[in-house]
């Protein structure tokens, strides 16, 4: 009888150890999943902040393409009338990361996305945290003065 109690105790201790190790593994996996989801959400917020900034910048210019002196000649907009650097084609720090904007006037440039015709302004915002985690969002804006978002999506 004494030997069976020892064997039963050892069996219960090993069973509890396996259960505790399994629970610890599940908790670590859940924590990693939560951190990844939080970072992905922050990347989307960064890209959305970029789109909001692009809309604000669009409203600040009188017409697209902006008049001579508002931006240098080129496919992408890189400056404004006040001589300040525009929010386009450069990284802008925001919160825990940064975002970058690129824009093309579809009436002047061929659409890089098939099926969007020749009206509006195509804006791409890239949110980044560190050097390896990035998320892109694209939006089709009406031309000024409204600069309303016609559609937005996450490119492939």
What does this structure look like?
- With 156 residues, the chain is an alpha+beta fold.
- It has one domain (2-153).
- Helix content is 38%, strand content 23%.
- It is built from one helix and five strands, in the order H-E-E-E-E-E.
- A five-stranded antiparallel beta sheet has the order 1-2-3-4-5.
- A hairpin with a 7-residue loop joins strand 4 (133-141) and strand 5 (149-153).
- The longest helix is centred in the N-terminal third of the chain and has 59 residues, at 2-60.
- It is rod-shaped, with a radius of gyration of 26 Å.
List the helices and strands and how they pair.
Elements: H1 2-60, E1 91-94, E2 97-105, E3 121-129, E4 133-141, E5 149-153
How would you classify the helix and strand content by structural class? alpha+beta
Global shape: rod-shaped
Strand content: 15-25%
**What spatial order of strands do you see in the largest sheet?**
1-2-3-4-5
As residue ranges, the low-confidence spans are: 71-84
**Helix/strand order, N-terminal first:** HEEEEE
Ends distance: 68 Å
Radius of gyration: 26 Å
Number of domains: 1
Count the beta strands: 5
The biggest sheet, with number of strands, parallel, antiparallel or mixed sense and barrel status, is: 5 strands, antiparallel
Mean pLDDT: 79
What is the helix tally?
A: 1
Overall helicity: 25-40%
């Amino acid at each position: 009888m004494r030997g069976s109690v020892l064997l039963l105790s050892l069996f219960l201790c090993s069973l509890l150890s396996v259960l505790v190790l399994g629970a610890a593994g599940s908790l670590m996996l859940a924590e990693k999943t939560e951190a990844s989801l939080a970072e992905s959400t922050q990347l989307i917020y960064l890209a959305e902040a970029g789109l909001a900034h692009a809309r604000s910048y669009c409203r600040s210019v009188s017409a697209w393409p902006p008049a001579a002196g508002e931006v240098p000649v080129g496919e992408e907009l890189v400056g404004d009338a006040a001589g300040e650097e525009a929010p386009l084609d450069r990284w802008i720090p925001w919160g825990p990361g940064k975002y970058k904007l690129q824009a093309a006037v579809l009436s002047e440039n061929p659409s890089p996305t098939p099926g969007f015709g020749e009206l509006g302004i195509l804006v791409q915002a890239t949110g980044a945290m560190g050097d390896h985690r990035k998320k892109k969002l694209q939006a089709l804006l009406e031309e000024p003065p409204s600069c309303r978002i016609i559609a937005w999506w996450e490119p492939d």
